[in-house]
User: What shape does this take?
Amino acid sequence: MDAPARRGPVACWPDEAAFHADDPLRRSSTELDLGATWRAAGSNDAWRLTWLRDTGELYVCRADGYDGSCTDVAVLAVLRSENAVDAVLDGWREQRTDPDGLAWLDARLSFAIRSARAVA
Assistant: This one.
């Protein structure tokens, strides 16, 4: 498995405009949309999870409305390939609407990091 190169949040930005402005590759990269219905326990905020093919960045951002705008962008990991995304996030479709789906996501990324360290 292609393990995460970093886990974080690695870095944060106030919104997607700032996130894209910080690296031109982000703006032109194709995205793998992993849902905009991720939540933390006890919160009504919805978060969008996306992986960028050109940078390998897996990031979340607070989904602010129907216009697609996002704030509070955080890169969680760098996954070098779509196969790595599939392996690390196996089962994400079932978890994205869970009332605490973000905890599942954190656990999956933590497990991938621990597994990669054990092999290294």
In short: The first strand starts at residue 7 and ends at 15. The chain has a mean pLDDT of 88. The beta strands are 7-15, 31-33, 47-52, 57-63, 70-78.
